[in-house]
Amino acid sequence: MLHRLRANRPLVHCITNEVVQEFTANVLLAAGASPAMVVGEGEAEYFAGIASALSVNVGTPYEARIETMKKAIRGALAAGKPWVLDPVAAGGIPWRDKVIFELLEMQPTAVRGNASEIRFLAGVGTGGKGVDSLDDSSSAIEAAKTLARKYKTFVVVTGLKDYATDGERVLCAVGGSEMMTLVVGTGCSLSALLAAFLGGAERSLEACIACCDYVNYANDTASTRSSGPGSFHFQYLDALYQIRPEDFRK
Amino acid sequence: MLHRLRANRPLVHCITNEVVQEFTANVLLAAGASPAMVVGEGEAEYFAGIASALSVNVGTPYEARIETMKKAIRGALAAGKPWVLDPVAAGGIPWRDKVIFELLEMQPTAVRGNASEIRFLAGVGTGGKGVDSLDDSSSAIEAAKTLARKYKTFVVVTGLKDYATDGERVLCAVGGSEMMTLVVGTGCSLSALLAAFLGGAERSLEACIACCDYVNYANDTASTRSSGPGSFHFQYLDALYQIRPEDFRK
Amino acid sequence: MLHRLRANRPLVHCITNEVVQEFTANVLLAAGASPAMVVGEGEAEYFAGIASALSVNVGTPYEARIETMKKAIRGALAAGKPWVLDPVAAGGIPWRDKVIFELLEMQPTAVRGNASEIRFLAGVGTGGKGVDSLDDSSSAIEAAKTLARKYKTFVVVTGLKDYATDGERVLCAVGGSEMMTLVVGTGCSLSALLAAFLGGAERSLEACIACCDYVNYANDTASTRSSGPGSFHFQYLDALYQIRPEDFRK
């Protein structure tokens, strides 16, 4: 999957939150994809049609930007391109939850969240505080399957273990470190990377979990080389760049 | 104070400038707080009520965002939560000064600025060029006391020496390096960290100066490990993470 | 030129894209300039008049921000200050192209782009995919000269070789590495640095190519010290800070 992503160098259209735009772009570049943060009212719908995939993240939504997200989603759907929804902090703020459910109705190819977000969206939890998952990811497996079936989408729950499901099958990836939770944007950029895998490698459940495996590998590599979140930040980007497909054979 | 902050892991609502959002979030995470950059028209007031503290920074103000700041401030005040004002470049641009004085009337728990900003707000200076302080911080002690008494707020002046005052007492912290002025957001993130101390440790003058001490310690540590502003940037985040309360006994 | 820039410490007003604001500010600080990202409707025109130079980048344009760009440009022109246009992704999206041509009519002091952008603006190419240049920079020399003559502006084409022209003379700088293309904002921040050289050193073709030389030097230095785009990011900032004017004599 990683080999195919790099060969295709997918152009990933990101409409993400204000906080993590630079980091998300750098994660995509380090992985071998090509980021484009197109947010203009007049160009988002057009551009989503020519990009390889779209990633929508509601970390800092406001009305004008939400309209642009919807335009871009319509552009992606019309062109048959995959799009990923990152429902940041679902369950935490009623106004935002309404936005998230509206986007969820627009046929995302995949939804990526932590356990509390996924549980809330599936109707079996109360949501979390900020972007930190309060629940173990395995606690959200059934919720993820329910959500995937209801919206006919892939659902990816990340945490100490990551799960990807299409509503029937469940694939699991293991890895990751606490350090990742101390750098803003690691989860958000994973969602953008998921769009890169779906648009640049393959539109499949296997591509979803391959993305998680790749991120976990980079995460583990960076953790052992870091003495804090500052050094983790650059080591993580270096690791994403250095990891080669053949490294996974080990 | 640092021990208490980490035990409470305060949720800090930040409405800050476009330039330093990622760095501010990473500073809060490295210190042990939980950042949330909530800026939506429909959620800022609600969220300020459930967060532990609010930090407002006017580094890149524009009308829609200023309205959101005011909503969030009303939410914080209604819930009795502390909020911090960072009056970036006060005295530099008349339009912005008007905005700053409007926010200053909204009962901030603390105001954090450099000497030229604080002197201007107290009516004894002409303000500065950009975000660089043109004055020695000690030159602003009397201005800080005046400002604190007038608005019944803590005032923190940072520079080579830092001063915190409630209008009567003045506490001082020493430390810091020139390198800090070569990385954007060190001052802005200090204001967010001040909100974290006020909301997560204690609402007191002692908490204000503890925040400065902690930042100075991290700054000094990072300076000795850096060969330029790029390496300072990540060393500073590592230092904030590594410093333990017991390190201050030395 | 570098000596003069640092002696004058120019205040560079940047209205740039959402993705690279922090990096652009840090590049300017590391080089010895003073960044100010002033984007308020009520302050952009005023501030452009008091800054040393203005840098406008259309990486993430939307209507409100485009209006602010135009206000700032009018402020810079009225005060006789230089301004630089970075036409990100020109030729890629019709809506954006219209915006770029409107800005191009407002008498930029310099235009900085990659080969495909410059070729498109000169009417001899079809533009590129995202921000990556698809053409060798030397392929755009004639286009750059045409563009410079038509709009009476300096044109700087960057790539593996960089060219600066006023429509008659062409100066060349050599250097740079592939790593630079894997960190978002290296090109965008080069445009801001170009504004710093034009406003803080000299308004000349020589200042344009001096800026490219300086960036290439930092780029080469950082490349040899990096093991990936994460470490390149901070090494690049360190190198910009460490390079002294006398180093160019070697």
UniProtKB/TrEMBL annotation, chains A, B, C:
The keyword Secreted does not apply. InterPro entries: Hyethyz_kinase, Ribokinase-like. Its EC number is 2.7.1.50. ATP binds at R112, T158. Pathway: Cofactor biosynthesis; thiamine diphosphate biosynthesis; 4-methyl-5-(2-phosphoethyl)-thiazole from 5-(2-hydroxyethyl)-4-methylthiazole: step 1/1. Signal peptide: none annotated. SUPFAM superfamilies: Ribokinase-like. Pfam families: HK (PF02110). Substrate binds at M37, G185. Its cofactor is Mg(2+). It comes from the Bacteria. It catalyses: 5-(2-hydroxyethyl)-4-methylthiazole + ATP = 4-methyl-5-(2-phosphooxyethyl)-thiazole + ADP + H(+). CDD domains: THZ_kinase (cd01170). Keywords: ATP-binding, Kinase, Magnesium, Metal-binding, Nucleotide-binding, Thiamine biosynthesis, Transferase. GO terms for biological process: thiamine biosynthetic process; thiamine diphosphate biosynthetic process. GO terms for molecular function: ATP binding; hydroxyethylthiazole kinase activity; magnesium ion binding. Belongs to the Thz kinase family. Catalyzes the phosphorylation of the hydroxyl group of 4-methyl-5-beta-hydroxyethylthiazole (THZ). This is Hydroxyethylthiazole kinase. The lineage of its organism: Bacteria, Pseudomonadati, Pseudomonadota, Betaproteobacteria, Burkholderiales.
